[in-house]
Design a protein that fits this description.
Distance between the termini: 10 Å
CATH class of the largest domain: Alpha Beta
CATH superfamily of the largest domain: Medium-chain alcohol dehydrogenases, catalytic domain
Domain Enoyl reductase (ER): 15-335
Protein name: Zinc-type alcohol dehydrogenase-like protein
Order of helices and strands: EEEHEEEEEHHEHEHEHEHEEHHEHE
Oligomer: single chain
Organism: Jeongeupia naejangsanensis
InterPro entries: ADH-like_N, ADH_Zn_typ-1, Chloroplast_QOR, ER, GroES-like_sf, NAD(P)-bd_dom_sf, Quin_OxRdtase/zeta-crystal_CS
Number of domains: 2
Radius of gyration: 20 Å
Family: Belongs to the zinc-containing alcohol dehydrogenase family. Quinone oxidoreductase subfamily.
Helix content: 25-40%
Largest sheet: 7 strands, mixed
Number of strands: 16
Length: 338
């Protein structure tokens, strides 16, 4: 089968950073389904895994953790899918990725994709939808039944992939008042179209801007961009007994003492945790992706595609990685077909 892989971890400008390769077609066993890939999306995690390091792979490594395709075969223990089912999923970071014609994925972290979307539009959703859903409803404990309706949430990195779906879930499912950060006219327009009630510029004083909007504090903060840069601000604006979630690892020590007097919560979200550790509730990702598909098909939320980069090959994936590393992406980058 065709695939895009790496042997060495190189700058994306290097000719060998990503390579077109041929690999054996995998075989489904256990609870795995074999998916014929139709479309993929590219995420910051792809660039972080590919980032330069002094390591050489003994066999080409396939990246990619966002896919839509059709079930080609099922393992003997599969109960959730049958051959021919159109599915979407983010996959498992400990296994080969989706930048290939075929991929194995555990049925418990996949779901039937939205019937109203084509493969590329569906591929834009899984990783970010899982991350946003888990951040809001599992880590922050926001009610999916509307019990927290009207509470205020600050979404830092509103125009990115995760922010784009988090804004929608916070509004549509939870009924929160959403303030999203955005610094450019096009990103402000984007988050407003997705349902943000207001925007603030993350390059300026966020606390002062929130106060001008009538929010001395917010009940929730969702940090999808640079935890180190924003931690002090998050501690300043979080309400007493409020909750902060971040998906971006820190590189400097975080002063948790800033949260003590408020009895505020700080929690991480990493959407690969359930698959990586084979947690007892792995199937929750199947369930939440099923609900996201229902919300899309009902018109309650929409896909977050920002750009389509053409066919799945090394050249186009290198271009996508370079765009993500430049830090100016709005929504998701997708590719389709080999």
């Amino acid at each position: 089968m065709k695939a895009v892989a790496l042997n060495r971890y190189l700058p994306i400008t290097d000719a060998d950073a990503l390579l077109d390769v041929e690999q054996p077609k995998p075989v489904a066993a256990g609870r795995d389904v074999l998916v014929k890939i139709e479309a993929i999306a590219v995420n910051p995690v792809d660039t972080k895994v590919r980032a330069p390091k002094d390591k050489v792979e003994t066999s080409p490594r396939v990246l990619g953790w966002d896919a839509a395709g059709v079930v080609e075969a099922v393992g003997p223990d599969v109960t959730l899918f049958k051959v021919g089912d159109p599915v979407y999923y983010a996959g498992d970071i400990t296994r080969p990725g989706c930048n290939a014609e075929y991929q194995l994925v555990d049925e418990r972290i996949a779901a039937l994709r939205p019937a109203s979307l084509n493969a590329a539009d569906a591929a834009a959703l899984p990783l970010t939808a899982i991350t946003a859903w888990e951040a809001l409803f599992d880590r922050l404990g926001v009610s999916t039944a509307g019990a927290d309706r009207g509470k205020a949430a600050l979404v830092i990195g509103g125009a990115g992939g995760v922010g784009s779906i988090a804004i929608q879930l916070a509004k549509v499912v939870a009924g929160l008042t959403v303030i999203a950060t955005a610094s450019r006219p096009e990103s402000r327009d984007w988050v407003t179209q997705l349902g943000a009630d207001a925007t603030v510029d993350h390059r300026e004083d966020i606390a002062a801007q929130l106060k001008a909007l009538g929010h001395e504090t917010v009940d929730y903060v969702l940090c999808f961009n640079d935890t180190d840069q924003h931690f002090a601000t998050m501690a300043q604006v979080i309400a007493p007994q409020g909750k902060i979630v971040s998906i971006v690892e820190n590189s400097t020590l975080l002063d948790l003492n800033l949260l003590k007097s408020k009895s505020a919560t700080f929690v991480w979200e990493f959407m690969f945790t359930r698959a990586m550790y084979r947690t007892a509730d792995m199937v929750k990702q199947h369930e939440l992706l099923t609900e996201v598909a229902r919300l899309v098909d009902s018109g309650a939320i929409r896909t977050t595609v920002g750009a389509h980069y053409g066919a799945i090959n090394a050249a186009n994936l290198k271009r996508a990685h370079a765009t993500l590393e430049a830090g100016q992406t709005i929504g998701k980058i997708v590719l389709a077909g080999f």
